[in-house]
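Reader question, answered in our methods column.
A reader sent in the components of a multi-part assembly and asked whether the whole thing could be modeled at once rather than chain by chain. We filled in our standard form and ran it. Here is what they sent:
COMPLEX SIZE: three components
ENTRIES:
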Amino acid sequence: MNPINTRETFDNQLSHLSQEVLSLGKMAEIAIRQSMQALQQADRGIARQSIRNDLEINKKRYALENNCVTLIATQQPMGRDVRFLTAILEIITELERIADYAKGVSKVTIRMSEKNSSITIMTHLQEMAEMGLSMLERSLEAFMRRDTESARSIPLDDDQVDHLYNQVAMELTNMVIKDPGTVQTAQYLMWAAHNLERLADRVTNICERVVYVNTGEMLEFDQMEDE
Amino acid sequence: MSKPKLKPLFIDNLKLRNANANRWKIFFQVSTYVGIIFLTLLLLNILNQTFGYVAISSKVDPDSLTKEGVSLEQLSKKELITIIQDNVSAGLLRQLQREMPLEEKSQSEVYDIVVEKVFESEVSATWTLADSLMNKVSIRAEAAEKYPKADLVFYSWVKPHLLSNPQSSNPLNAGVRTAIFGSLWIVLITVIVAFPIGVGSAIYLEEYASNTWFNRIIQTNINNLAGVPSIIYGMLGLAIFVRTLEPITSGAIFGSVDPTTANGRTILSAGLTLALLVLPLIIINAREAIKAVPDSIRQASYGVGATRWQTTWSHVIPGALRGILTGTILAISRAMGETAPLVVIGASTYIVFDPNNIFSKFTVLPIQIYQWTTRPQPEFRNLAAGAIIVLMLILLSMNAIAIYIRNKYRKY
Amino acid sequence: MQLPFIYEINIESTEMTLPQNNSLAIEATNLNIYYGTFRAVKDVSLKIPQNKVTALIGPSGCGKSTLIRSFNRMNELVPGSHLKGEILFRGENIYAQTVDPVEVRRKIGMVFQKPNPFPKSIYENVAWGAKLNGFKSELGYPNMDEWVEQCLRKAALWDEVKDKLDQSGLSLSGGQQQRLCIARTIAIQPEIILMDEPASALDPIATLKIEELMRELVEEYTIIVVTHNMHQAARVSDYTAFLTMDEDRSGVLVEYGQTNQIFTNPRDSRTEGYITGRYG
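And here is the structure of the entire assembly that came back:
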């Protein structure tokens, strides 16, 4: 006789929910990529498209939140299940914020009047984005696989993103010193870099939630700013 | 995608099942009606015997003793005594006066003496109720032809005299008073003995006894005892109470009777024998009643710190009282109707004096009825039918009391 | 310039906080309970804290009812049951030869699964146990009437029954009957109240009333509750013990800890399986 899985329906609902979280993550990733493409090519059309897409992401996030609340109310989860659902509430918020950063970068693209001069800076910004997206992808994978170890190690990569951020900041300062006329451009680019730096921080939060789901530990991978 | 359809696995057999159910229902109905028919026949048979035309012939024509227009019943005691003095022999009169001076008797007693001794009324023939109702004319003709001197009257064998008169050889005067008193005395002894012992052992078995092999044997044996034929109890009573314990059951060692004539065939022996007989019934009924008290009540009682006895006294017994009393009354009805064991221990069949203590000789209603039915004269069978009605009324009223108690002690 | 990551634990300590010895109400040590040869409870040691609600949860047949009934020696009324081990109450083993079970039950009262008021008046239901155990008005409380009122008030029933104290206890609704049973238990002034699935026969509102009442009573009494409704255990208790059956179908204690820990982050996978509904 097959043992009856007493919560098969609930398990199916949960796995469907995590698939949806994954697809929300994919949408956030595409938004970042799109906005970076717009920035690199100074293409306002793509930038505007990316801002419009953000609406979809917000809608999906609210749908998922509603889904979670319904499951909490109807299934009365306990133990790992309640940790899982509350973590999802947290993770979808983080994903929506990440999409907001894409919007931020797109706005920079729209406002910047001229094409950017420094190829180095643009390369570094692209690297920051790539690194952040890689962290995002791995964190969601860890979430799906319930992989505590990798969830603990991903935040270490934030170090490199921060390093790049500092480098971009230095380069922009140098740019302004050389040619004070670029101060507005530098400001916009600094803003874009800031958005990308925050992206990595959000991924760190997602990793904290993954660890919480798996172990019940509430951690904070804190990043101490120097004085 | 359409839902996969279930393959039909069933044939439509509802009609068949309903037909089967109907057959059984009809069978049950018929059995009930058959039972009712038998009971009705029994009752009709008794009623048939109890009422009907009776031809009564007298040595002295009652009309000759009374002045015109005044019936005998209306005469005063003094006039009745005069009639007796005028019509009976001197010897009989002396004998009557010796029993009890006529002047001290009541008017109705004197009237009875007139009917018995003066008229020396006798039953010449009786007809059943059915006959009396349907063949009135032919009965009248037959009576006029065969018993020209007799009075043909429509007679009820259940009458006040039946209750108030003692046994007599003349069916017109015979009554069941001594038998009723005998029955009541015996049942009293039975209850006094069997109720405390029966309820006590039921409480012990249900509340205290643990489930050991010894107690299981006791319980099985009590259940078996309830099925032992009553005549066996009679033989037991004969051996123990009448013979072995004769000094006690005859009352000889208490000095209340004449030791030379006393024997053990007394009310006490009969009561004790019937007590043995109904004891298993009382125990079984009381145990069922105690078992029916929900365990949750006992637990609640223990839960507030009651001892076993406090629990039993305050919750178990009040909860079971209804069932215990009902069971006891039904057991008493059983004792009232028992004949065989009392015959075995030697109930007298012809007693004219009321039993006045537990060492008296006795007879009981069923024995009286049995004795009358064995008489050769047909009119005693009519008398027995009347006594059966009396017995049935007593048993019915005991059952009514049981029902009343059941309703009164309804759950709080 | 940049420090490496550190992580810090950010919520209250998740170390298992078990009751301390100085505040124990009752303590079971290596308890084994048998029905004939069958061992229903195996090697259970449990420290129940004072003035707290402790819930015993677990699947059917895990021995939780047997365990709670052993705390006031009700279990020995079941024919064939016997017990090894100790239950210490005020430093004394309640199963010692010299201890009368009646005295134990007076100090450790019990409320049952099915409301079982006596078939007597509401007043008598409360007063009977008190009378039985030698309630003396001179000893503190003015008189029985006031004591009955006090108990009914504590059981949150007074306002509903004050005009019909002479009516049968059985005329009340199920939830009211159960609160009457609680009042009856309070009336004998126990130190511990055992509740064996007290709300399983009640509707949801009556259940919540009983639960709320338990939270009020725990100010004065220690409460041990058996429940098969783990959400009830989660709502009402401070500590939770999870029992289950081992391979011999004997009840064993799997995990015991603070309720919030047991229900959000159980240590044992069997507990996790049970509370998330993936038992077996």
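What stands out: The mean pLDDT of chain B is 84. Residues 58-157 of chain B form one domain.
Send us your own complexes using the same form.
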